[in-house]
Fold:
Amino acid sequence: MSAAETLSPELLLTLVERRSVRHLWIDGDGARTWLEFGRAVRSAHDALAAAGVGAGELVTVPGEATWEALAWLFGAALAGAVVAPLRAEREAELATWRLQAAPQWRVRAGVVERLEAVEPAPAAARLLAPLRAAGRPGLILATGGTTGTPKLVLHDLAALLATVPVKQSVARRIMPLMRFDHIGGLDMAWRALGSGHVLVAPPADPTPEAVAMTIERHGVEVMPATPSFLNLLLAAEVHRRHTLSSLRIVPYGAEPMPVGLLARLRSALPKVEFVQRFGTSETGALPVSESGAGLVLGDDTAGFQWKIVDHELWVRSPARALGYLTGEAGGLAADGWFHTGDLAERLPDGSLRVLGRREELINVGGEKVLPAEVEGVLQAHPEVADCRVYPERNALLGQVVAAEVVWRGAETDPLAVKKRLHEFAAGRLARHQLPAQVRLVAAVEATRHLKKNRSLSSA
Structure:
C-alpha cells in the first residue's frame, strides 16, 4: 500500500479485497464485513445502471447515517453520477433541489426512480458542464436553510475524497452522529473507510439516552459530536446510568465550544480526549490538531491555508467547492479563498479560536454581541443545565440579547432567574451583553445537525 494513496470510489473496491473479512459496520442486526459492503456498492451501481442512470446525471440518494446510504453514495460515484444525499425528513426540500439542480433520478426505499424532467437553472448547468465533460463524479450538499431556503453546493467528489488518506490504523469503533447529508458525517465515514475503522450505526433518533445505550452496547470508542449535543448528554446525566468506559476520543466542532462546558465534560468523562475539529460544506474538513486553548490548522499542508481578515477566518482548500448552484458567489472568492463567515482570533501560542458566526452577531444599539460568548458565561452557573442566546427585536436599540434557559434551580419566575443570572455574570459580561429577556424552557431547540438554533425571535 503506497503512503500516497488517497480514497476514491475505485480504490474502495481494492480495499474491499484487502480487508474482505474484517468488520466494517455494526448495527442492531449485527456486524457486517468489508466484503458485504463491496457487494452492496456493486449492487447499488448495477441498479443505477439498469435504470439508465448515466455519467454526469444527478441522483438523490439517502442521506441518513446508514449502511445503505453509504453504499448508494459510492455506487453512484462509481457510475460517474452527481450524488445528492437527501434525508427522508427533508423530502419537502425536493422542490428547492429541483428548482436549483434539476435532479433526474431519486433513490427511495431501495428503488431507483426517474423524476419528471425539468431544466436546471442556467448557473447550475454552467457549473455541472465541466464536471460532466471530465467524467468525474460530483457531490451536492445543502448548506444553511436553518431559517430559510438551503443553498446547494457543488463539489468535485473525486477532489474531495482525495484529501482522505488511505492507511492502516488500529481499528477503532466510531459512531458518526452527524448524518451523511452533512460534511461532518461524510468526512468521518470516509476517514473511517480510509483507515480501516469500524462504523457503528447511530440510533435513528439520537437522544442522549439512545446514544449512551449504543455506546455501552457496542463499545464505541470515538464519537464526533457538536458541543450542543455533548451538553445534552451532560444535562441528561447518562454517564451516571450507563457504562461509557469504552469511549476514548470525542472530536467536536460545527459550533463554538464554551470553556465551561469543556471543563465539565472533562470532569464527567476524565478518560476521554476531547479534540476540536473544523470544516465547512464549501471546503471539506481541514487538517487540524489541538494545542492549548485553541485550534491549529495545517497552514499550507497539502494545499490547505488559512488567515484572518477583518476578524473573519478565510481558508484555502484543494477540495473547495466548485460553486453554488444558484450562481451566487457567497464566500467563494475568485482568488481561491473561502470567506467562512466565522469570526476568529489568533491566540498568543499561535493557535486559532473560532468565536462564532458573523451572521449570528447581535447588534445592541451598535454594540456587537457574540451569542456563544454569553452562553459560555451563563452555562458556568451551577443551576443552568443549558441555554440558547439569540437576538430579539427592540424598538429603541434595534436588538437586545434574549436567552432561553433550562433552569434546575428552585425558582420558577423568569424575572427572578434573570436577576440571579445578571448578578452571576455582571463581572464577566458588559451591560449590553446581559440578557434583557429570559425564558425558562424544558429543553433548548436544536437544528437537524444537532446545533443550537440562534435565529431571530419574532417576539
Observations:
- DSSP finds 13 helices and 26 strands in the chain.
